[in-house]
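[Automated response] Your request has been received and processed.

Submitted sequence:
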Amino acid sequence: MKIRRKQLTALGIAACMTVMYLPGCSRQARLENSTAADAQETARTEEDTAGGNTDSEDSESPADTAGISADGIQAEYDGEDLDASWDEKDAVVISCDGDNISIDGKGVEEKGGVITITAAGTYVFSGEVSDGQIRVDAGKEDIVRIVLNGFSITCADGSALYGIKSEKIILTLAEGTENVLADGENYKLEDGEDEPDAVFFSKDDITINGEGKLTVNGNYQDGIRSKDDLKIVSGTIEVTAVADGIKGKDSITVKDGTITVTAGNDGMKSNNDVEADKGYVVLDGGTLNITSGNDGVQAETILQVNGGNIEIEAGGGSSQAVAKTTEGFGGMGGRMNGMPGRGQWSEKGAMPEMPSDGEVPEMPSDGEMPDMPFGGEEPEMGGDGEMPDMPSNGEAPEMAGDGEMPDMPSNGDAPEMGSNGEMPDMPSDGEVPETGEDGKMPEMPSGGDVLETDQDGEAADSVQAGSTETESDSMKALKGGTAVIVTGGEIKVDSADDALHSNGDVTVLSGTLDLATGDDGIHADGALRIDGGTITVSQSYEGLEGFTIDINGGTIHVVSSDDGLNSAGGSDSGEGSDFMAGGFGGGMGGDQAIEGCYIRITDGFIYVDASGDGLDSNGDLYVDGGTVLVCGPTSGADGALDYNGAGVITGGTVVAVGSAGMAQGFSDSSTQSSMLVYFDETQAAGTTLSLADENGNTIFSFTPGKEYQTAVISTPELNDGQTYDIYSGTNTEGEENEGYISGGTFSGGEKLISVTIDGVVTSNRSTAAGNMGGSGQGRNGAWGKDKAKQKTTGEITEDTVQETTGGKESDETGEGASDGTDDEVSVGTNDEAADGTDGSVSDKTGGRISDKAAEDTTENMTEEVMEKTSGGIVV
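Generated structure:
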């Protein structure tokens, strides 16, 4: 899948065409808006906005520094943070029994159940206060230590512990004690004020240490909140809050302790978006268990995990994710959301006619959209099969009574579709509507996003284009605004949205990650880098995603309902805006390579089970080392490998199996030999594939968990000029990992094919088609000049057509075999067939068709065979 997509609700083809031509909806503009929105993605509170409630003493000028180092953060703990010792002889002792409060010492006073600390020192609390408050209102440089020694306090109309002024409040939990802080559902605040708003609220630093237990019940909003730095050194802490659980505006650091958070909004959060060196979260250790309605842990800048045992359920878990589609509309050689991609409409190559009453066209009984012709041809409109001329102002046309698309008006306004079949007014933001129960197109909403549907098929709330992601729709587990860094620890996630997410970069150096998510396992708007660790993505929409993906080590297992690994342009937040930004497969001319976008694998063991593309790069794909296993798609609209630029292998082992429809091998700019093998029959799931050299030595055996019809194979053992045998259904012996055995032995089975390596790219099937609706990246053939000649010269029979098109025939001829000359090859897309010469397919593909091969093909094509081609593809 190219760029992110939301699922379209059932809608008419005419509505899609209307959106397609709305002015101002260019891909670049949408990406720019999305990027601007992403920079402000994390939720804000009023304290951080201009005009918010902030005491003058609390205000700090923006930092002049360049921000936190990209290498991460070294958390700092002062001596008093680490020291949980106290001596009652040197402390002020406050004993409580309901409304009776006894104070032994100075620096504290009580009035009407409000206990106010006014000086630095150690204050020991025990007993119970049924309705009261502890206030800290000391000097700005005073450190106040509060020891909870078996203490419980509830404040019905405010914070139970309220820090008004101090340098720092250290809350020490006496060993072996249980302590409770609680508030009510409504606070009495000064006019115009909106804080305090947490059970334990401080305008200054908070540190929690000790070996006791603290229970915090937040019935109003937040549980624990500091407007400065918040540090948890030790203790057992349980927080329940209707809003955020634990919040430190400038930072949160966790050294140790056992922390359990149940929050209606975010579990833990640092949200300073003004100072570049603040707003971070560092988890150094401890046990952290978070159940959150929205994000589990959110940092405005860097989120860094160095250790500990972390378990997060965000947004109700992966089962609560909004349903997504894996492909998009592919007219004009690209893809648009919610409909079949890569230029596949119907076998007849025609767009269904639009009814005169404006209703959405009926879908086939199986609920699937009709296929596009293989060549990626533009759909034909109306009874005469002609596409109308589009006006210069991009206005959407009206539908005539016969379903034909008329000429476009010139006033720049999209006409309405009423009962007479006219198109409805389109909103300025281009949002696509749902159809009503009567199947008619409703008034267009103004949100600017494609409507999502939930798992019941109902429309979900949409986010306005260009708006920031709000707390109510971000349900990620670990989220860092500028970076997420994992250097260690054990992380287990079940999230409705991304498991790990950054609007910037994500780096995994070590650790164990067990991720189940309704969206991406790991997502970076920028660079995703994995140097080590064990990463298991057991459930995802897309497994690993970043603008660039570098894998330099580690053990990775990915299961995805769409792409396994995806390097893509654009961002992940406000996804509905990508309907126009990326919904057309990079524009009206098919899949285009994005500059600077790539996947590079240098080491590691990677297993991908993808229902969409296995490895999908919107730019280049590089494999320099490691072991890569792909159980790719079973549908013909995706491939085990998918890249738009170059696919270069220089080392390592790749075994990628999948369907045949969009199969793609490596480019001939590679330095390590590879083969793309098509099997005559689909191999059943669980059928072992074994490769042996001409001396009978086993190179590897692999048992995919899904059916497959093609295999891309590259190992250092493949040598030019040597012959290799592929066996199916063998019995194997050896050390197995994810169904793969390097070397080992096998017995039995059926010999499927022998392949002789001829250059760096070899295949048992070649075709001048090059790509089926893409950009000439070696799909379905084009595997070397000599083999291309051998397959394309001579008489071409109907059987040959069926073989090279996967058995799919079309009743329409499309554009024909030639685009105006005898030696040029048309691939039926809007991409150019040649890279500067007449008739040669781009050398970025997995092989190249020579001018002579193309010439031989066109000279020997009969009229009958021309009629059998799909969308103008010459085979």
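Summary generated for your ticket: The CA atoms of residues 141 and 167 lie 5 Å apart. The mean pLDDT is 73.
If you did not submit this request, please reply to this message.
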